[in-house]
Amino acid sequence: MDLDQQLNVVKIGTESVSDGSLSRRTFLKVTAAAGGGLLLSFILPRTIWSKEAAGARAADMFAPNAFIRIGRDGLVTLIMPYVEMGQGTYTSIPMLIAEELEVDLTHVTLEAAPPDERRYANSIFQIQATGGSTSVRAAWEPLRLAGATARTMLVSAAAQTWKVDPTACHAEKGEVIHATSGRRLKYGALVDTVAKLPIPDHVALKAPEDFTLIGTSAKRLDTPDKVNGKAQFSIDVMIPGMKIATVAACPVFGGRLAGVDDGKAKRISGVHQVVLLDNAVAVIADHMWAAKQGLAALDIQWDEGLNATLSSAEIIRQLETALLKPGVIARKDGDVAKAMAGAAMKIEALYQMPFLAHATMEPWSCTVHVRKDGCDVWVGSQVLARAQATVAEVTGLPLEKILVHNQLLGGGFGRRLEVDFITQAVQIAKQVDGPVKVVWTREEDIQHDIYRPYYYDRMVAGLDKGGMPVAWSHRSAGSSIYARWHPPAFKDGLDPDVLEGAAEPPPPYALPNMLVEYVRQEPPGIPTGFWRGVGPTHNVFVVESFIDELATAAKKDPVEYRRALLGASPRAKAVLELAAEKAGWGQPLPAGRGRGVSVQFVFGSYVAQVAEVQVDKNGEVRVTRVVCAVDCGVVVNPDTVKAQMEGGIMFGLAAALFSEITVKNGRVEQSNFNDYRMLRMNEAPAIEVYLVKSGEAPGGIGEPGTSALAPALTNAIFAATGTRIRKLPVNRVELRSAKL
Amino acid sequence: MIARDEASVWRRQPDGEETDMLTLNINGKDCEVNVPEDMPLLWVLRDVLGMTGTKFGCGIAQCGVCTVHVDGQPIRSCIMPVVAVRGKKIMTIEAVGQTPTGANVQKAWLDLEVVQCGYCQSGQIMCAAALLAATPHPNDADIDAAMAGTICRCGTYTRIRAAIKRATQPS
Amino acid sequence: MKRSGYTNLFVLLMAIIIGDVNGCIFHPHGPMDFAGGTQVVLADYQGSDPTGAPPEVAGAGLVARGEYLARAADCIGCHTTPLGKQFAGGLAFKLPVGTLYSTNITPDKETGIGEWTDNEFVTAMHDGVGRNGTRLYPAFPYSAYTLLTRNDVLAIKAYLFSLKPVHAMPPENDMSFPFNQRYLMRFWNALYNPAQRYQPNIDRAPTWNRGAYLTEALGHCGECHTPRTLLQGLDANKKFEGAMIEGWKAYNMTSDQRSGIGNWSDEQLENYLSTGHAEGRSTAAGPMSLVLNNSLRFLTKDDIRAMAEYLKTVPPLHNQADLAVAQKRVSATPSEARARSPRGPSPNDEDLGLRVFEGACASCHDWDGSGVHSPYADLTGNRTVNDPSGVNMTQVILQGASLQTRQGEMFMPAFGTGYSNTEISAVVNYVTGLFGVSPSTMTPDQVAEQRKKK
Ligand code: FES
Ligand code: FES
Questions:
Q1: C345 in reach of chain A (CB within 8 A)
Q2: Within its chain, how far is the Cα of C125 from the centroid?
Q3: pLDDT given at position C193
Q4: Taking the CB of residue B44, how many other CB atoms lie within 10 A of it?
Q5: Predicted local distance difference test score (pLDDT) of residue C341
Q6: Is the pLDDT of residue A680 over 50?
Q7: pLDDT score recorded for residue A113
Q8: Segments forming the whole domain that contains residue C281
Q9: What confidence score (pLDDT) does residue C331 get?
Q10: Would B5 be classed as within a structural domain?
Q11: Interchain contact, C347 vs A617, CB within 8 Å
């Protein structure tokens, strides 16, 4: 009955997320499902970001958050807390179950778990989040284990029925088969029996070489409805009697609403109501058109508050100053000062990365129906429990009266880890009779995002006579997202995100004397949040640019230089070599063209990219090709890994080439895709993705494609022009003056 | 009449003097709407008729996710006043699969697993279907010309290009 | 700063001594003198009164009449900043000789004109002399407003005094020496302010006279469309020939057939003046779109017609920079359009202009330039597209455009922030080449210059 030992036995891979904590309390329960069939309740780690969560897990309580239901029809339903936002979770996760349970992938349906604190989570462990490239990593072990447990029990139920030895039976395609007699029983016929059986002592996970599904490019389950208009995103929700609202918040960060003249707006046909919030106005109408027109017709007075004169220049100046003081030490290996003193050469560089908006293709939208006795919310969120909590707070209703219906996400990229929008939508809905769908315009989305922080970094390295680094000092200034988003994770001046890829894990290179410091400097007024690639997108750009600078100083080839430093990291070296080889590294290129490389180990995956660029005499940059080599451990769905790399590369490229949020008079200056520019198809490079076969535990795939791109790009620009890009986005005016 | 047409039943018709009864031909069927003439087609489709397959992304003709066909031409419904399409044949993502080209495109999209979050894909497919209807064997430059106006934030561009090429092959 | 100040002073003095080479000190042209015939004082005029508000609002009371006239005079355009309160002033005018800020003309007693008497207001409007005798700079077009009747001026005042007072002090003017010496305006006035009321022309139709009053006295069209002399006065010899304003070309609007409006049908001209768009001719953008939004679109049909009638009589003028306009629709498919793509300025990226166009422009303007969603986006025959200098095209791409019409707002987004100088020059040259008579040769540096002019 106790799975503890078994769990340790089946634990595979070195990147295990369970930390052994799974073994200290009950993992899984089997009961009869309501309405017949079998229900397995178990625990799925909802994030592997927060270390303190492990402590909560270790507590002796069973609070399942994921369920597998096998019906009498043999169909398998998986109810789980991860959400689908294009990353293929709704396919990869069922693959894990289907593999161990021996059912066809098409027989597994996935349902998003509603956030129900009583059933799905305990009060200590509140982060129900999808993000940080964690879903498959976190689910890899428990899901397979749950599937294997169910399979084992189904087999023993059949064996009992036939009165044969379970070891003579096996499961295959939704049936248990007794090979010698040729007898077969479908799962559906066994589930009611299984529900009464005790959980077995021993469960054997399939050996990787026996996988028939994991590692194949199984077809995505969520896509057919996404090519015919049927898929329903948050913005598509239609509730009978629903009104549509759009909203304008104070354009200045932290400003408040001082007054509104809504006379003209109310005369617009289709406009019903103008709702005032502390810092925003919403127009409630029959349709978005009337709402938009109503908003435009309002005469709004804002109290702009303290940030009315805030500008990007001021924020950058503050970061610059912050960078002058020593920071909190995030990593200290050896003696940097001494090594620096003895170095033959000292290299120093400053790097800057801008504020960025997420610009998910689907603008924020949330439908809310507040009633006296309850509240329904339809939204696409990466953090359902938080969504529910904020609704409870705003409405004053108890959690169990709040139903959050999660919808498909039209892109997340970290934006939907925030609930600011849900809070606002509920504040509006509280003043509206009946359901209301609040839809943000793109302008509102760009100007009221929670932005990727501005980072300012200072790098210093000492090189020996051979040009190899003997001292490495990295000081980073910027805001801590965790300190706001999940304060317990911000401890002793550090959080797990801010220096991922710089300190923990460190760069994959042999850097004997190393000091990594962090200076927390929050921009006044501007909220900052997670953005695809999170901490590593910042750190990998800085580290990989600087490594390239060291190679240049050492007069070494960038690939050779990195290779020489990767002796202790064979997986990193392997992806580097693979990418270099496939990209034709070293082969001559015409003038104005160049290749650049980057290597990283973040999110549990090793990625190397080689970008090839063409820079013309006017400084215009075209990225013609990106070659990407990935070792993300066991690959669940290779096609999904490739798709995520492709998407991540495009996302990173748009940002590195074009994106920058700037602030003037306390307002964001960009507003829509005309001035917050996206990458378009005719600007997209050819992308090749190569996967390294690996038996290691799976690593993340959603973010690493993005974090690896920027340095590969800027290193390629350096190769093509001799101009080192230390500030993103790439300044093409500056490149224009470079001599080519 | 049209997909999810129940939705239009509950939707209160806006009143006011500048509204007018307009007859629209959507996906081969006539339907009447009572909306202001300058209301963009996008919101008529989505908010009045409940046809939410056509998406909103920017409202300024810069992203293409709201693309529908009007007399076979791809247009951005977010800035197309509804009065301008009166009497014309409007086709949306909900029905494009009923045309041979549209069906080919959808199939190619699934074969090559183009879709990620899927939000932009209605627009991508409508643009691709219009391209292939006009230019059955497009080269890369034709594809750029037809598709560069439609943004995919998930970065599915390489696959879109490949899928368009695949859709030109007889299945 | 200092040296240029002295240079300016020198120029100014020389100009005064030798007489403005282009203008005439002693016999200034009246703005309607080109028409010949006999001008009489208003009291002696027998035709219907060309001044005042039109019959539609004549009975609506003083404030309503004043509102109409204030709109026709576009007061709001100069006395409102983009983020500021209406009529509260503060809009900056960057002149070669310094920066001026428009004043607060709300009835606020401290910062606005709340304490002004009728006579003080009239003196400002007619003579360019403010309260306490301070000389106003002619960025305030009193040399046009001087033509207004006292009644009309007082109607405007009544309207302004009906507004909510806004307490807002505009920034101090920042003019370099000698232009900060306001008394020098006395000389300027002698040269350029006719300082007389509108005089109808008895040899012209009453509608023409009404058009003249609207165009010259209220609309002050010449302020933008007539080139200036060295002393920044309007050059009477080049009336409506076209001039530069804030980095935009105010086009030739004489009756010249090739480069003016001589070939425009009455309907086109009236449509342009009332909606900002004339099919096959032009769509207003830049400063002109503001004139449309704030002023012209509120005028009655008859008033628009009268203006058109008057404009058509302005003698043709053209200079070497004038435009020929291609009228034909170009090829329709992307492939054809691409085949005749003009090549861009980026040395090894000839397709840059094409790429920008297909990404950001084609979805609205379409490959044949027909404007998919709105006639306002039609590029065929458009002046901006046919102007080989590419100046207005560059500006409209940098800043976008917005017109308020009866069909709602017609707009083009601004692309200045998202695109580089090279990209913008490439797409300007591409579009002028594809849809105009001859491609422009805009360079990235020129785009950089254009950016500074806002
Ligand atoms: S929503 Fe119409 S183009 Fe973006
Ligand atoms: S698939 Fe997500 S935006 Fe295109």
A1: yes
A2: 19
A3: 75
A4: 27
A5: 63
A6: yes
A7: 65
A8: 207-311
A9: 63
A10: no
A11: yes
Contact A289 B40 (CB under 8 A): yes
Are B82 and B139 in a shared domain? no
B120 and B82 both lie in a single domain: no
Split into its structural domains, chain B has a count of 2
Residues constituting chain B: 171
- One-letter amino acid for residue B115 of the chain: V
Neighbours of C255 (CB within 10 A): 18
Is residue B54 situated within a structural domain?
A: yes
Ligand with an atom nearest the CA of residue A226: 2
Give the lowest-confidence range in A203-207, C23-27, C133-137: C23-27
Lookup: tokens for C406? 């009866």
* Buried b or exposed e, range C276-289, using 16+ CB within 10 angstroms: bbbbebbbbbbbbb
Q: Amino acid letter at A475?
A: R
Question: What pLDDT score does C196 carry?
Answer: 86
Neighbours of chain A (3+ CB pairs under 8 A): B, C
Is C346 an 8 Å CB contact of chain A? Answer: yes
Q: Which residue among B62, B109, B152, B161 has the greatest number of ligand 2 atoms within 8 angstroms of its CB, and so is best to mutate?
A: B152
Q: Report which of A409, A406, A408 is spatially closest to residue A360, judged by C-alpha positions.
A: A409
Query: Which residue range is the domain that position B136 belongs to?
Result: 96-167
Among candidate residues A32, A211, A711, A675, the one with its CA nearest the CA of residue C360: A675
C282 min Cα distance to partner chain B (Å) = 20
Token digits of residue B10: 């509950």
Q: Are both B108 and B88 inside the same structural domain? A: no
pLDDT of residue B95: 97
Q: Between chains, do C373 and B62 touch, taking CB under 8 Å as contact?
A: no
Q: Is the pLDDT of residue C22 over 70?
A: no
- Residue A219 near chain B (CB below 8 Å): yes
pLDDT at A334 exceeding the cut of 80: yes
Each residue's pLDDT tens digit, C183-235: 777 777 777 777 789 999 999 999 999 999 999 999 999 999 999 888 778 88
> What is the predicted pLDDT for the residue at C139?
84
Task: Dig out the tokens for A341 from the structure.
Answer: 């003193």
Identify all chain B residues contacting C358, using CB atoms and an 8 Å cutoff: 144-145, 148-149
Query: Reading across the β-sheet that carries A593-602, which strands appear in turn?
Result: A593-602, A605-615, A621-631, A686-691
On whether both C176 and C231 belong to a single domain, the answer is: no
Instruction: Retrieve residue C269's tokens.
Output: 């001209």
Note the pLDDT tens digit of each residue in A202-231: 788 998 889 999 998 888 888 899 999 999
Apex CA B48: angle with CA B56 and CA B82, to 5°? Answer: 75
Contact across the interface for C333 and B146, Cβ inside 8 Å? no
Q: Which of A612, A605, A632 is nearest to A691 (CA)?
A: A632
In this prediction the pTM is 0.89
